[in-house]
Amino acid sequence: MTTNNATKENINTWISQINVQYKAAVSVDCVIFGYDENHLRVLLLKSDMPPFEGKYSLLGDLVMPQENLDESAKRVLQQRTGLKDVFLEQVKTFSDVNRHPLGRVITTAYYSLVKLNDKLFKIEENNPNLKWKKLSTISDLAFDHNLILDTCIKQLRYRLREKPIGFVLLPKKFSLKQLQNLYEKVLDIELDKRNFRRKLKALDLLVDLNENQSDVNHRPAKLYTFDHKKYDHKRKKGFNFEL
Q1: What is d(CA 211, CA 13) in angstroms, rounded to the nearest whole number?
Q2: Phi and psi angles of residue 128, each rounded to the nearest 5 degrees, phi first
Q3: Within 13 Å, how many C-alpha atoms sit on residue 149's CB side?
Q4: In the beta sheet, which residues pair with residue 29?
Q5: Domain limits, the chain
Q6: Cα-based distances in Å from 214 to 38, 98, 106, 218
Q7: What is the DSSP string of 225-240?
Q8: Taking a C-beta distance cutoff of 8 angstroms, is the pair 183, 243 a contact?
């Protein structure tokens, strides 16, 4: 959990009161993954909290008295991106005694997936302390946020293999090359084209739209869409998504 100057004094007071009465405060931290068809990025906030001034951190906040954990994570996501109904998954709770410089703060980590567009990139323009950083360039984060980020990326990669969550990061109409590129970028591996497409065919969940790409400077590829209804039907019958 990090903050900004506008709310820092109130939060410090609140944490102090909680520590006196209950020995711990509760927060959420969100790893907001964004994909732009070239890179997997994470939305980070430049910290102003000693001793981490100037370092980037994940986005988070204390859980308000009227909220549960999921509601708090959704609030953080909406406040920072303006988005609702975004894929969001709870991953793990981090409770190291000395993880926060202000006292005992127990945090629950979430990750979310958003498809980056010009509007979301403008978040950086509206708040210079926010930055969509490439995952491959992130190193020294504030607090224990490197541990939280590493835990969430492992969970994302695991889920990507067993559930069709990756399709939320693609256009509604996509090529097989775009789909393979997504998996390679998120999993940080190189996939064999023939084997990848063989697995896709076996899943039988893509709809050939009988359309080709337009406005591209290469040979237009065929376009597909993911059949969510067919997936739900097959899942209820015990189907396992593996890609």
Answers
A1: 59
A2: -65, -10
A3: 25
A4: 60, 109
A5: 5-161, 163-236
A6: 19, 54, 50, 10
A7: EE-HHHHHHHHHTT--
A8: yes
Q: Which CATH number fits domain 5-161: 3.90.1010.20, 2.60.120.460, 3.40.1190.10, 3.90.79.10?
A: 3.90.79.10
Contact of 88 with 59, CB cutoff 8 Å? no
Are the beta carbons of 14 and 25 closer than 8 angstroms? yes
CATH number of 163-236: 1.10.10.10
Could you tell me which of 180, 231, 89, 155 has the C-alpha nearest to residue 240?
231
Tokens encoding 107 = 């945090």
pLDDT digits (tens, 9 = 90+) for 48-71: 999 999 999 999 999 999 999 999
Q: Would strands 25-35 and 105-115 be described as parallel, antiparallel, or unpaired?
A: parallel
pLDDT per position as a tens digit, 147-171? 999 999 999 999 999 999 999 999 9
In contact, 77 and 86? CB cutoff 8 Å: yes
Q: Quote the tokens at residue 174.
A: 């996509």
- Is this prediction's pTM over 0.90? no
Dist. CA 105–CA 94, nearest whole Å: 9
Which tokens belong to 184? 């390679």
